[in-house]
Amino acid sequence: MFRILSNGARFCSTFVIGLLYIRVIQSFGNETFAIIVISAACVTLYDCVREVVRTFAIPALGVACHSAEGEELGRTLVNSVLISSAFAAIAFGVSICVALNPQYLGIPEGYTTQSTAYLLIRFVPAAVGVAVCPLTCMFAVHGDFARYNAVFVAERFLDLFAALAVLVVGYFFDTSSQLIVFGVIISGTLLVLNCAAAWLAVRQLPARHLSPRLVSLKCVRELMSSTGWSIAYMVGLTLHIRFDVLLANAVFGLKTGVAYSVAAQLAGYVRTGVSTLGNGLDSVAARAWVNGDQMELRRQTRIFASAQVLAALAVTGALGLSLPDLLPVWLGSQASSEVLDFAEIASIARLLLIGMAARSASEALMSILSGCGRIRSHARPILLGSLVNPILIAMLYLMLPVDHRFLAPALSFAIIMPLVHVLLIPWIFSKTIAISLRDLIRFTTVPITVCVLSYVAALASASASSFLSGFPQLPCLFLVFLGTFFCFLNPHLLGLRSRNLASTSAVPLVD
Question: Cβ distance 348 to 266 under 8 Å?
């Protein structure tokens, strides 16, 4: 429960920070705002690499932490840092090539020099964050989710802090220099944060667990055997939507690229909200797998599969129904039409929300599979979906009317994600972990029913009342709130009754 509350506080904090951050950077000017938004898609590529490291490091460190061999944890940690440092170096080399060619990002003429310098400055702390990721993962391995989430929130807060600092000291710099000042402030503070978090995470470990003599090619090979599928998993899962953003920017221009970037950030709140329930579930599953606690593993599946489906549908419905009123509040009602088109953003966001809801609904299943060391089983369909994505985008581009071709990447995302995450992932999970597909469907029936009824009632009440017709999000949020409590208080849904657990306790896990 403490883990879920900590994750919930993280979501609320980052959501508020995100709202304020967008409003603050808009005051930098249209061109600077557009450069920051588009550059964010490049900077967050490091987040994908960090997720790759996290995906293989947490299960491996969790197993090593409970190993009878004293130096196993240190050996795994040191070699994980070695691998993450290599990933950071490769990512930094690739990102330098991107930074030196900003014209391919649709950066306006006259701003290429500033954008190149800004990207190079931002890439340094991002690379360091990747390198020390296994060290900060020790917070999750030891169950210290308060500090683990605090580091994440602090990273997001530093974005806002740097933006506010530029507003304060911006009077001493011209407009073209504000972007560089912003990059220097945020990069410097992020470097301090990453180094401090890494030190806090390992300061209680014996010095022998961090000794270079623990470097082992055998251990590196063992970790790399799962890293390949971790890369495939994250490329298919995380780079998918970022590829769509960069593609839209390259094909349709800066304005559509900004619209995709903003819509992707909005849709990302669905996954962030859902993951508040399941952050750290992979480490919990890893401990249950190592200890052979099959009943606990099935219990976690029952609880989080149903809860995350509920959260995904609730957050998606609330955002989707409130988009017309939310965008002016989030982006500012006086936002310049030269950079932002609310109608375009809303059209893209609705499609991305569909795909993100489908993807978020399977978060619990994927986390449990990853924690059990079965990432290969669900990485393959995810990678297949990412490979099909550009082909489907090209087909949709040719099929859609000219005025709607900009929706091709978003529509492809809305088609592929449900096919992979609603159909294939549950089927694979049922074959890998001993929980039948029929049970998984039963777990999610009540959340789906409650949310659908909530949406129908919300739309009906909005249509019937002239007062609420302009604010459909109010009844939606209220009814989904009630539905959420109904689902969470229902022991039949969450599978908390001991007889249900006992009835399946003898079913073995599929190895």
Answer: no
Mean pLDDT of 233-239: 70
Nearest to residue 310, comparing CAs of 277, 285, 282?
A: 277
Which contacts (CB < 8 Å, 24+ apart) does range 484-491 have? 484/310, 484/311, 484/314, 486/450, 487/306, 487/307, 487/310, 487/446, 487/447, 487/450, 488/307, 488/310, 490/446
Note whether 408 and 393 are within 8 A (CB).
Answer: yes
Closest CA to 230 of 376, 95, 32, 350: 376
Where do we find the tokens 């974005």?
159
State residue 127's pLDDT score.
92
What are 353's two structure tokens?
């929300």
- Which of 37, 14, 40 shows the shortest CA–CA distance to 25? 37
Paired tokens of 7: 């994750």
Over the stretch 447-479, which tens digit does the pLDDT of each residue have?
777 777 767 766 666 555 544 444 444 555 555
As given in the structure block, the two tokens for residue 400 are 């859609």
What is the pLDDT averaged over residues 276-280? 66
User: pLDDT digits over 325-372, tens only?
Assistant: 777 777 765 555 566 778 888 889 889 999 888 888 888 888 888 777
* DSSP secondary structure of 48-101: HHHHHHHHHHHHHHHHHHT-SSTTHHHHHHHHHHHHHHHHHHHHHHHHHHHHT-
**Amino acid symbol at 258:** V
- From CA 310, how far away is CA 245, in angstroms rounded? 28
Show contacts of 59-63: CB within 8 Å, 24+ apart. 59/226, 59/282, 59/283, 59/286, 59/370, 59/371, 59/372, 59/373, 60/223, 60/226, 61/134, 61/137, 61/138, 61/141, 62/141, 62/283, 62/286, 62/287, 62/290, 62/371, 63/286, 63/290, 63/373
**Torsion angle in degrees (nearest 10) through CA of 47, 53, 59, 60:** -160
The pLDDT of residue 510 is 38
- Which one is predicted more confidently, 314 or 405? 405
Dist. CA 138–CA 292, nearest whole Å: 22
User: Do the Cβ atoms of 410 and 244 come closer than 8 Å?
Assistant: yes
Fill in the DSSP letter of residue 422. Answer: I
Q: What is the CA radius of gyration of the chain?
A: 23
Nearest-5° Cα angle at 446, 443 to 450: 150
pTM for the full model? 0.70
pLDDT (average), residues 76-94: 89
Distance CA 217, CA 211 (A): 15
Range with top average pLDDT, 131-140, 172-181, 390-399, 461-470: 390-399
